């Protein structure tokens, strides 16, 4: 990706969503190497308090020692110089005068921050627990008096938590503290005001003072408003209350763009590098302009007021207010009127109730709904309310992403996020909102709805076009709130999830109800017009549905709709009279519309009379997944339902028939254009050619989940697979058999050549059974009963020494000279060996 061009002034990104987190307390930041480095670490390095080992490694995931922890506290207390002066002899037997931490230890003990052990040691290399670290920090801030006499470690942990020292830290009292977590605790303590003693003797008291670790380190404190930023140079320009203007660099953990227009308190190190920023969040409002700025909003050429949507209020604009829109400063009445239009979004900074700074953007993509993210091609597929489109992130020089106000990456964006995009300076500024509410949908109107007693506006574009969408089936299908409004009735009183946009309006509704959005195809078997029910076989399962529907007769052109009693006259499973139908369901599972495509009645000669006439089913094209019917060709996919016969309905797998031939095929084909939706055979199904004959060994026999007999067969030159059997007696365990598989996947035995029937049928005159002892065995040959045969890697070997019913799979290496075997031989090649007696 190209490097972003210099932005002298650009948009406030990190505060585009309501956020209560100060910029200085950001959890982490993305460095130039695109790795996550905690902001606390960057600040600690900028302050000079965090140093690596001799190789420069910070070892943030390693436990910290007592000496290392104390050194950090001495440094943030501004006492490093004093610690240098106190290097040398200590009172601890295990801390030599030349120990690197001798000065820190002498000073820390003298300041009452830490103590040694009763045995006269300090144990500088022992790990520090979270409770011990918290105690040292509390005593360094003079809070030790508040925990003296309190139960250990509960008192220390509770006070440290009250002061916010554990924010963002998973602190377990007696567990060794990790270096990274200790740095986070120190970062949390930087602006905590220390206690100061106000009396002595019997009048000794403590109260909160003004001193902090930052002030103890003589950090430069800067107050003023950020009036300009340079993102490439990591610089901010601040104007103080006296009007003085200065420019400062900022550490990598601070996004300078996020400070534009804010009144801040910042701290800089000796290099005039700002490492910590804080501001009052109440000065900010993230909002949307609700009405175009007009002449009435001006006093002469000066903008005096503006209407905001989220706040639902009108605000005064200060005389010296500064306005930026899409990264450019806007001045002059005409330019302001042209730029400040309804729907423009941004951050508004306030001073004494007046707007003093506006940092705004106008959307190129307004509140679109994310459907899919492709991180490889860097694209985002979205739905804009009426159609699907794609955002190509390789088009601009670069892009910036924030999710709920936090800097993020492309892979962080998820389906159902609401996305806004502004494009300026050849950079896509992408703002993602991820906020939902859940509850029962109680009321639906054209521009609002009610969920669990709360009314929400429906999301609109700047031109008041409805943007909202909904899905009744967990986003399998998306519908427009305005175009498909009638379908919303199915969601009433159902549990829904509402996806909200920036303004808190409903952008998308998600539910999971059975609605008219799904088409069902089936065979109507029986009609009860008195109870108003219809029994329909759908996908091989029969179910009775309540029906309150228009029934459309599609069998002939111009046919009138059917009554339920009229449908009953066409359908009677006792007399083998059926109807091929499509229907839809309402949210309660009641048929609310039905279409009759064809009817079929079985005659005495077992043929079917079909109205309209059955279509020819001439052949199958496995390469293109097509059923050929005369001059018509219908495409089959995984959703096509295929039924073998009407009076004993079984589903047919396309994969089982697509490479077969059919003779005299006829059937009912329901298609949508060229796509076959439902296919019912009325003739010729039994003529579908069977599979080529296979040779296999029956390893097991059982009843399957449908209650049918099935067998596990190891096929020569093939896989081990389960097949349905024609009957319980069709096969026995241990049989070596030739078999075929029909279109339904059922196994049909053509000959058992060893097992319950060890005779060789004339059909298989190329096959013989070789019996006898093995006298010679080579890698590619075997001599059985005095005759030599070929073997190869495909030869199957089984151990039946305990009888055919206890057959075990074996390998060719298990065959020994002297073993008695039976072998299936074809063209001098041994295909199957049974070891019947071990030598």
Walk me through the structure.
The chain is mainly beta. It folds into nine domains: 38-213, no CATH class; 221-278, OB fold (Dihydrolipoamide Acetyltransferase, E2P) (Beta Barrel), CATH 2.40.50; 282-361; 365-433, no CATH class; 436-510, no CATH class; 520-609, OB fold (Dihydrolipoamide Acetyltransferase, E2P) (Beta Barrel), CATH 2.40.50; 614-687, no CATH class; 694-754, OB fold (Dihydrolipoamide Acetyltransferase, E2P); and more. The chain is 10% helix and 40% strand. The chain is built from eleven helices and 56 strands. The strands form twelve sheets. Strands 20-19-18-23-24-21-22 form a seven-stranded mixed beta sheet, with no helix packed on it. The radius of gyration is 41 Å and the shape is flat. 37% of the residues are buried. The model is unreliable at 1-35 (pLDDT under 50). Residues 1-26 form the signal peptide. Keywords: Repeat, Signal. Residues 24-87, 88-151 form the SLH domain.
């Amino acid at each position: 990706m190209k490097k972003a061009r210099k932005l002298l002034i650009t948009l406030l990104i990190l505060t585009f969503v309501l956020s209560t987190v100060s910029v200085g307390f950001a959890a982490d930041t993305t460095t130039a190497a695109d790795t996550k480095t905690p902001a606390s670490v960057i600040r600690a390095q900028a302050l000079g308090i965090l140093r690596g080992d001799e190789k420069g490694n910070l070892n943030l995931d390693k436990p910290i020692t007592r000496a290392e922890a104390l050194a950090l506290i001495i440094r943030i207390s501004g006492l490093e110089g004093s610690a240098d002066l106190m290097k040398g002899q200590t009172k601890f037997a295990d801390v030599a005068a030349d120990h690197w931490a001798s000065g820190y230890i002498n000073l820390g003990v003298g300041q009452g921050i830490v103590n040694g052990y009763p045995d006269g040691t300090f144990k500088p290399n022992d790990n520090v627990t979270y409770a011990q670290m918290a105690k040292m920090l509390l005593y360094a801030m003079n809070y030790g008096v508040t925990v003296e006499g309190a139960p250990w470690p509960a008192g220390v942990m509770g006070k440290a938590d009250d002061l916010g020292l554990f924010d963002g830290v998973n602190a377990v009292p007696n567990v060794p503290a990790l270096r990274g977590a200790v740095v986070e605790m120190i970062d949390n303590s930087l602006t905590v005001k220390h206690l100061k003693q106000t009396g002595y003797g019997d009048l000794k008291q403590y109260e909160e003072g003004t001193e902090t670790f930052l002030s103890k380190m003589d950090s430069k404190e800067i107050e003023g408003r950020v009036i300009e930023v340079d993102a490439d140079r990591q610089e901010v320009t601040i104007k103080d209350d006296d009007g003085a203007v200065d420019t400062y660099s900022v550490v990598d953990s601070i996004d300078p763009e996020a400070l534009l227009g804010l009144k801040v308190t910042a701290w800089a190190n000796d290099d005039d590098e700002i490492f910590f920023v804080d501001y009052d969040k109440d000065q900010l409002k993230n909002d949307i302009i609700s009405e175009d700025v007009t002449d009435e909003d001006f006093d002469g050429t000066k903008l005096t007021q503006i209407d905001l949507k989220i706040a639902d209020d009108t605000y005064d604009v200060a005389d010296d207010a500064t306005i930026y829109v899409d990264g450019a400063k806007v001045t002059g009445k005409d330019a302001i009127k042209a730029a400040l239009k309804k729907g423009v979004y941004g951050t508004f900074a306030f001073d004494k109730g007046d707007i003093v700074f506006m940092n705004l953007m106008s959307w190129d993509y307004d509140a679109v709904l994310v459907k899919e993210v492709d991180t490889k091609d860097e694209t985002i597929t979205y739905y804009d309310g009426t159609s699907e489109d794609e955002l190509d992130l390789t088009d601009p020089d670069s892009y910036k992403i924030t999710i709920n106000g936090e800097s993020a990456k492309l892979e962080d964006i998820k389906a159902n996020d609401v996305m806004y995009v502004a494009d300026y300076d050849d950079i896509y500024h992408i703002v993602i909102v991820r906020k939902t509410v859940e509850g029962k949908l109680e009321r639906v109107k054209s521009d609002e709805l009610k969920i669990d007693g709360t009314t929400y506006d429906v999301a609109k574009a700047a031109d008041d076009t409805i943007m909202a969408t909904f899905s009744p089936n967990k986003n399998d299908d998306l519908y427009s709130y305005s175009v498909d409004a009638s379908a919303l009735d199915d969601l009433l009183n159902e549990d829904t999830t509402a996806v909200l946009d920036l303004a808190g309006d409903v952008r998308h509704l998600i539910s999971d109800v059975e609605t008219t959005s799904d088409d069902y195809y089936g065979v109507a078997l029986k009609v009860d017009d008195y109870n108003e029910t219809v029994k329909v076989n759908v996908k091989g399962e029969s179910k009775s549905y309540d029906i309150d529907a228009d029934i459309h007769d599609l069998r002939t052109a111009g046919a009138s709709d059917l009554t339920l009693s009229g449908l009953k006259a066409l359908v009677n499973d006792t007399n083998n009279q059926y109807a091929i139908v499509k229907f839809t369901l309402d949210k309660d599972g009641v048929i609310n519309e039905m279409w009759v495509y064809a009817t079929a009645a079985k005659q005495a000669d077992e043929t079917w009379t079909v109205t309209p006439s059955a279509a020819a089913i001439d052949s199958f094209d496995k390469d293109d997944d097509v059923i050929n019917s005369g001059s018509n060709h219908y495409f089959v996919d995984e959703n096509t339902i295929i039924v073998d016969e009407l009076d004993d309905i079984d589903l047919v797998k396309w994969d089982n028939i697509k490479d077969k031939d059919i003779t005299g095929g006829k059937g009912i084909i329901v298609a949508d254009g060229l796509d076959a939706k439902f296919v019912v055979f009325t003739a010729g199904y039994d003529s579908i050619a069977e599979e080529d004959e296979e040779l296999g060994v029956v390893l097991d026999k059982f009843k399957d989940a449908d209650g049918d007999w099935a067998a596990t067969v190891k096929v020569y030159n093939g896989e081990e697979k389960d097949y349905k059997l024609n009957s319980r007696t069709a096969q026995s365990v241990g049989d070596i058999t030739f078999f075929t598989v029909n279109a339904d996947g059922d196994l049909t035995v053509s000959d058992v050549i060893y097992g319950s029937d060890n005779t060789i049928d004339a059909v298989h005159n190329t096959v013989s059974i070789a019996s006898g002892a093995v006298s010679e065995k080579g890698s590619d040959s075997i001599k059985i009963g005095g005759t030599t045969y070929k073997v190869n890697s495909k030869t199957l070997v089984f151990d039946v020494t305990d009888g055919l019913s206890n057959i075990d799979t074996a390998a060719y290496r298990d065959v020994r000279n002297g073993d008695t075997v039976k072998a299936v031989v074809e063209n001098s090649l041994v295909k199957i060996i049974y070891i019947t007696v071990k030598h």
